[in-house]
Structure formats: C-alpha cells, structure tokens
Amino acid sequence: MMLNQSDPTRPANPGTPNRPSGRRRPDLTLPLPQRDPSLAVPLPLPPPTSSSAGTTPPISSSSVSSTPALSDLDRVRRIGSGSGGTVWMVRHRPTNRIYALKVIYGNHEPSVRLQICREIEILRTADNPFVVRCHAMYDHAGEIQILLEFMDGGSLENRQIRDEPFLADVARQVLAGLAYLHRRKIVHRDIKPSNLLINSRREVKIADFGVGRILAQTMDPCNSSVGTIAYMSPERINTDLNQGAYDGYAGDIWSFGLSVLEFYLGRFPFGDNLGRQGDWASLMVAICYSNPPDAPPTASREFRSFIACCLQKEPARRQTAAQLLQHPFITKSSHSHGPPSSSGSASSAV
Ligand code: ATP
Ligand code: MG
C-alpha cells in the first residue's frame, strides 16, 4: 500500500547490501509505546458488545491499552510464506486471542525499514470492516513483525467461485475496502487473490499493504522472489503505454477485476497456457499486448459487463471502486449467498 504521491524515502542506492541495523530511535519506529505486559494481565477485557456506551472504551487497534507485547505472543503454527515474509498463527497468552503475525524477511537497510514502518503506520490507522486490521508493529532487533487480524479461512488463492451471487458478495466486500482506501488516497498496488482473505463469517478483507512492494524496489525485478507481475495493469508494467502516466487507483481496479475473473474461471485469466507463475517476459507480453480477458458467454450479462468495466486497457476508461459498487452485478445480488468452496482447490470446487 502506498500513498499516491512520490516516495521521498525511496532508497537512493537500492543495490546496497543489507547491513546490520544500529539502534533505532523508538519514536520513529514504534510511535505507540509498548505497554508493560504485566499491566495487561490481571484486567479482564470488557465484552465487545458491552451496552455501557460511553463508559467502556471499545477494544480497537487504535487503543494503546490493547496493543499486545511481542513477548506475550506464542507461535502456534506457520500459516504460509510469500515473497516478503512468513505468516504465523499466534496466540496472545494473557487473553488467549488468536492473531496472524507477519515476519518480514531479513534485516533491511535503515531507509527501507523506515519506509516500511511509515507505511505500516498508515495501515494501523485503517479502520474498515473490509480491510484486515493491523494491531501492532514490532521492530525486533531490526526484524519487522506485523500483528494482524487472523482470518481463519485463509486467502482466496486457488479458490473457484462459480456461484455468481456469492462471487458478487465477495466482489462487493473487496470493492468496499478499495473504495475506503481510495477515499483516503491510499493505493494498495498488490491486489491479488492471495491478498484477499476470508473468515468463517464469510467476511472478505483486503490484506498486505505494500511491504512486498517496498522490498521489490530494492530487489532485481526479474528475480522471482520479488513476487508476480501477473496482476499488474498494462500501463504499470509498460510505462511507455499511456505516456508513462500511472494512475494507481485505476491500477488497483485492474488487479481487482483480474482477481474476480480468476475466481470465476478457476484459473489465471490470461492465455490457456500462461499461469500466473509464468515467466516475466511471457506475462508482460500477454498483459501489455493482448486484448484484456473477458468473462465467458456462460456467465451472466451483468457479470460480463462488470468485468469489462474493470479490465479496460485504457486506465481512464476503468470505473472507480465507488462506481463499481453501483453496478447491477453488485446491486442485484445484495442478499444471502451460498458458501465458498471449502477445499481451496480450484478443480474440486467447480
Ligand atoms: P506475496 O508475498 O507474493 O504477496 P502471499 O500473499 O501469498 O504472497 P504472504 O502475504 O506472506 O504471502 O501470506 C502468506 C499466506 O499467509 C497467505 O497466502 C495467506 O493464506 C496467509 N495469511 C496472510 N495474512 C493472513 C491473516 N491475516 N490471517 C490468516 N492468514 C493469513
Ligand atoms: Mg500477501
């Protein structure tokens, strides 16, 4: 995630090898002071549905008193890894609450770390039901760890969703999250199925905010460990298109549309033989020089139109998140829907 403005903290020399970090000024990296954990233990937390409005402060990520200390977190199991780090399921010992802890790989150059911390601070202020809550950030001897809301259904990667009303509900929630971020002038820049998480209440939330992107700036773009360009818009991959102007909001809409179409198809939408793990050059040629993919004739007219409103090659022709929320595909199916595929496997979910 980034603010839609230039990056003053972008490292001047991305090729500089990682250096062991020196001591950091705590006011730069941990603006919310960590509380003495012993203070948090004996006090029972008030029930979240407390009716005594005005007397009991809500439990929220912005409440310093609810910020867990890193030393109170026990790792339960490893959930998964991406290009930027490893995600753990953790339990907060004093409260028994479960969270996800994202541990960012490596010790980064101080300027990179500072930028990561700044962006996470922006994330920490994000307060929306369709955006994964960030509860805390730790700079543990130079290793950055982020405490996140735990989503027990995992990501939507490799899920196939053929049921259009349910797909509309998923799309509506992601759009609501995007509309919130875009209203706050925040561009996500890494919308893709693995960054869309679901829980057992069928709530879908946007995760992962730019950390991978910041790391990517410091790494060779042809290195597969940077992540995939598969969901990037044509004008972002090839800055010669669109005279080099890049509208990050429209870029998010492209990535969103491609992800939703992938849910419907059960495969990456570009080309029959081109997976999202395809090599960089083939992906680039397909995304920049072929026509945008569209929904098949088996899909409803509304869904086909919806996808076409997202996957316009010309960014100015893509609709905004707020406009797409008014699209008939979304507004026509705004009631209860079938369950998602439980298997997480595309083929078994048809
Ligand atoms: P990339 O690094 O290229 O973005 P990724 O999104 O798969 O790939 P991570 O963000 O490190 O990588 O996430 C790894 C996996 O951990 C995800 O696929 C997801 O299933 C899981 N995960 C991430 N955040 C959470 C969370 N808050 N709750 C539950 N599971 C999560
Ligand atoms: Mg991710």
TrEMBL record:
Enzyme class: transferase
Entry's Gene Ontology molecular function annotations: ATP binding; MAP kinase kinase activity; protein serine/threonine kinase activity
Gene3D superfamilies to which the protein is assigned, alphabetical: Phosphorylase Kinase, domain 1, Transferase(Phosphotransferase) domain 1
Binding site for ATP: K102
Record key words, sorted: ATP-binding, Kinase, Nucleotide-binding, Phosphoprotein, Serine/threonine-protein kinase, Transferase
Domain Protein kinase, chain residue ranges per copy: 73-330
Top-rank taxon: Eukaryota
Xref: Pfam families: Pkinase
A GO term from the CC aspect: cytoplasm
UniProt family annotation: Belongs to the protein kinase superfamily. STE Ser/Thr protein kinase family. MAP kinase kinase subfamily.
Name used for this protein in its record: mitogen-activated protein kinase kinase
The species this protein was found in: Iris pallida
